[in-house]
Amino acid sequence: MSAAYGAPLRPMLVRHGLLLIAAALVLFPFLWIVAAAFKTQIALLTGQLLFQPTLANFMNVLFSSTSDYVRNFSNSLVIASVSTVLVLAVATLAAYSLQCMQWPSWVLHSLLGWSVIFHMVPPITLAGAWFSMFRTIGLDNTYTGLILAHTTLNLPMALWMMGVFVRDVPKELIEAAKIDGAGTPRILRHVIVPLVSPGLAAAGILSFIFSWNEFAVVLTLSQRQTATVPVAIGKYAQENTIAYTEMAAASVLSMLPAVLLLLIAQRFIVRGLTTGAVK
Prior knowledge:
mainly alpha, MetI-like fold
């Protein structure tokens, strides 16, 4: 009996062991940053594994007179939130138009193909052109310019996701609403949006996180007044010194919004990324 039970147990133990190793490899950088945030600079540079935790790094990041982190954090919240709302609105309207308004197939395929190509372009290649354009029209170093840039970067991804969800809405419901005299705004509000709410949640969370983490475009288009969290973290690396522990503390604080969103709506993200994968 022991041999019979031992045979199926071995593959299971191997599988769980491999999963634990993979989890440790994924979590190690995160745990290292969290530990560094509570160390002194000397303890970090000397590689001390046992150390006395300190909150001085967080205090310096949040309350030091030379730190702009709180302002940068609020800038990120404003830019990521507003750009996410714009992305969802435009992507939902575009997806409804493409999937439900009888466009020729070449229009649908051309737009979706172009959005994929644009999404593959590195953002840094666009930053210089946007800087020149925004400076000409007076939008450099403004929230408006950064919001428009982030909306443009995240729109292709949201368009593809919302296109899949809108395509799966039963056409009979839309036709029934039209027979009842509903116009496009009413159909969108009472039929489309309730049915594609998981897609809106998934696309919104991903757009927010991508906007929150964007660095190259913000570095080019912003100055001290409008800089965001990634730029703030980069400022701790100066020419003559690098404040590793304060950089780690700022990084830990920057993870909080993304982690909170992922914990709240992780099932929507999984559904949004896998919808249509087996069709």
